[in-house]
């Protein structure tokens, strides 16, 4: 089965918000991504609205004819918004106000997760798929399953950030083991964060991997090559990895 590519369009909105302008338009970007290899369009609606805005998500839902995947924190505001916007799926991610980007998977190991479980139930009842962004460890994957998620997205930040072949292989092995467990538990398997043109193929080769969600590297490359080529190149690397 081919590994899907989810293209995250947040940073098109980051550039637009730098001038509070209308350009570049993330909806136009999503359309270019879709016609050049994106299987999913991904965006993260943050509490501080620093890039994607509510209206962007609603427009993406209405105008872009592909699977829409919304990343968000588990807050009453976001759950209510997701129920209104009706993306095909959501991914619960941790969010802290001062972070530059998402800092690892959700910490499911501490405290009660009954709030998250209730949110998952509400979204599932509305026909919205639910993923949880987790670090690649067995405990987190098992908890995600027990909470009722249908998908886990394994955080690839540690793999992507480590220097040296040995350490990188060790991080890859953590991803492989978590992937194996996710598959055994009947979870759909995604991965993402900090993936780029140099490190993506090893992750695409992980058995049972179904989807890679990638934003920053594609948008950064598109500054020089254009978005069409940047998405197309990433799609080619993923398709030729196996
Ligand atoms: N997956 C998740 C859960 C994320 O929060 C993000 C960043 O929004 C990504 C994937 C994409 O990460 P990057 O922009 O580093 O490719």
Descriptive account of the structure:
It is a single chain. This protein is an alpha/beta fold and 242 residues long. The protein has one domain: Aldolase class I (TIM Barrel), CATH 3.20.20.70. Helix 3 links the parallel strand 2 and strand 3. The radius of gyration is 17 Å and the shape is globular. Pyridoxine-5'-phosphate (PXP) binds next to strand 8 and helix 10. The site of pyridoxine-5'-phosphate has 19 residues, from strand 8 and helix 10.
List the helices and strands and how they pair.
Elements: E1 4-8, H1 10-18, H2 26-35, E2 40-44, H3 54-63, E3 67-72, H4 76-85, E4 89-92, H5 114-125, E5 129-134, H6 138-147, E6 151-155, H7 157-161, H8 165-184, E7 188-192, H9 200-204, E8 211-214, H10 216-225, H11 227-239
Parallel strand pairs: 1-2, 1-8, 2-3, 3-4, 4-5, 5-6, 6-7, 7-8
Helix pairs in contact: 2-11, 6-8, 10-11
The chain binds pyridoxine-5'-phosphate (PXP).
Throw out a few tags for this protein.
242 residues; alpha/beta; TIM Barrel; eight-stranded parallel barrel; 47% helix; 17% strand; globular; binds pyridoxine-5'-phosphate
Strand content: 15-25%
**CATH-defined topology:** TIM Barrel
Helix percentage range: 40-55%
Which ligands accompany this protein? pyridoxine-5'-phosphate
Q: Could you give me the name of the CATH homologous superfamily?
A: Aldolase class I
How many domains in all?
1
Strand order of the largest sheet: 1-2-3-4-5-6-7-8
Structural class: alpha/beta
How far is the N terminus from the C terminus? 10 Å
Radius of gyration, whole Å? 17 Å
Tally of alpha and pi helices:
11
- How many individual β-strands? 8
| H and E string | EHHEHEHEHEHEHHEHEHH
What is the CATH class name?
Answer: Alpha Beta
Shape: globular
Second-tier CATH architecture: Alpha-Beta Barrel
Uncertain parts: none
Mean pLDDT: 96
